[in-house]
Amino acid sequence: MDFRAREGRMKAALNLVKLGITNLCVIGGDGSLTGANQFRKEWATLLVDLVKSGKITDDEARKSSHLNIVGMVGSIDNDFCGTDMTIGTDSALHRIIEVVDAITTTAQSHQRTFILEVMGRHCGYLALVTALACGADWVFIPEMPPDEGWEGHLCRRLADQRARGSRLNVIIVAEGAMDRGGNPISSEDIKKLVEKNLGFDTRTTVLGHVQRGGTPSAFDRILVVMALLATPETPACVVSLSGNQAVRLPLMESFENNWNTYKMLAHINPPDTKSNINVAIVNIGAPCAGMNAAVRSAVRIGIIQGHNMLAVHDGFEGLAQGKIEPITWTGVSGWTGKGGSELGTKRYSNRPLLLLRMIIRMQDEYSAYMGGLELVQGRDKYEELCIPMVVIPATVSNNVPGSDFSIGADTALNTITSTCDRIKQSAAGTKRRVFIIETAGGYCGYLATMAGLAAGADAAYIYEDKFGIRDLEMNVEHLVQKMKTDVKRGLILRNENCNANYTTDFIFALYSEEGKGIFDCRKNVLGHMQQGGTPTPFDRNFGTKMGSKAVLWITEKLKEVYRHGRIFANTPDSACVLGMKKRALTFQPLAELKEQTDFEHRIPKTSWWLKLRPIMKILAKYNISLDTSEHAHMEHVIKKRVSMPAPLMKKASPATKHEEEE
């Protein structure tokens, strides 16, 4: 409260000047960042007053004449304009989805309607993303008040779902939800409505502050690191995340995509007109969390577009054997929260010489990527392959060229991070101990690197960052010195294929021998547990958006290639990988991505996350300097005020480099 008054800010300025601090990182919500902005505006006059009062000298004032302030947004509501995700939001979503998954099982067994109220007095982000992640029947958020007569519409939708065989209805409500007249809509109001009009057994759950608790997710831990790495040069700004890029915004939304996707997927009346197009979905390679969310989204968007949706079971092998059947709207109900692959999948081995007159959408890692390339190359020989194709990267390894993220990687990363937390905790109160943990990923070091950052590892050995015996020696010595202090635990991560000779057993033996009398070692190989489990909120929503985007792209591409009563697509841009590149979901031709691929090791030739590795050594207290010249390169976004129709006031998406956005 002292900081609200000028006298308090004067004391704060004096403390900074006396300590020689000219760079301030403020982490918090609206109040914290508002205070930081006020402090910055007053800085020059505060120094003048301090000099006049004799509390600082002219020389001290001159040395502290410029105060650089960086704001990092910490708010579970995700209510800061210009950022895709604020610190704390992903962790809050984890808590909410855990509750939704638990409620789902009991609700299905008793055929109930559940109403879940989540935080969001003025911002409905948590409610909206939760609705997308669990496939809710209805969502109430303050930004999008329901139309007049919503009560009847809601009841009709719930009754229709129940008539279609659904045993569960889920309604998500933001605490600030209201109707178009500004009247509050509470979870209790909705419960009374459903019970009175439909007679359904209805329960309400108000989550409250449980959303603020728990351990932070891997995404939130890494988000902080990425924001700190992006040290700006401007006097005052907010560093926020858009996609996987740090973006610098002047200190002073994109609800629309989430909202439109939700509205499409909640639509349960198929169109009267059919496109007479067959769209097939096949999962290729190893299963991973989030695959089913992508399939569900693709199937429902395809049905809305009027297509005949087909499910291919057991990968390319099933496609060759004709394991193909129609898949319906209700056939994918409840798939969003399921792990693995409901369609069944097998690793790609044989050449996919598949002559089928259908649209093919493939999923999962290099198996789909390589299979897609072969299908494209086969177009010269087989006209049946001249059809639009899109590959959606879905692999825990996150090693597909053309995409910064893959479906499933976030779930695997959280599994590794939580396991590392538990393993480290197991050593609490015992003698000094170092844990050697082997992670998955093939030759790709994404999981080892990101888990190392999130779990606080002392080292992470990966194929992309070459290391030798001198590096191992330095790491061991560093741990020896750390263990002589009050530190009792060490954590070493090793990617499974980082080095053919420096195996997990070798590194374990080396650390055990060199640490004798100082620390002992334990070894853990995480194995297939990294592929299992229910998908995280990120993977559920990422998969949902990717599946939706893929089918909408195919629909548009079909219009381009439909000529003289038939489909003929043989241009490079008719067979693409759908990936997240920086801040956008983009389609890149498979043929063009060949140049970016290390086929021998099944990894991209360049990876954005490698630039984060130096920060791991700094956090592990290695005495090294960090070159921030590359890391600080951000895109400076200038916003213009935009008039938007009520009730939608969306966060504006960042413009391209140095451009103004209208």
From TrEMBL:
Q: Which controlled-vocabulary keywords does the entry list?
A: Allosteric enzyme, ATP-binding, Cytoplasm, Glycolysis, Kinase, Magnesium, Metal-binding, Nucleotide-binding, Transferase
One GO term (biological process):
fructose 1,6-bisphosphate metabolic process
A GO CC annotation given for this chain:
6-phosphofructokinase complex
Q: Which cofactor does it need?
A: Mg(2+)
- Name the reaction it catalyses: beta-D-fructose 6-phosphate + ATP = beta-D-fructose 1,6-bisphosphate + ADP + H(+)
Pathway(s) served? Carbohydrate degradation; glycolysis; D-glyceraldehyde 3-phosphate and glycerone phosphate from D-glucose: step 3/4
Protein name in the entry: Phosphofructokinase, muscle a
Can you name the source organism? Answer: Hucho hucho (huchen)
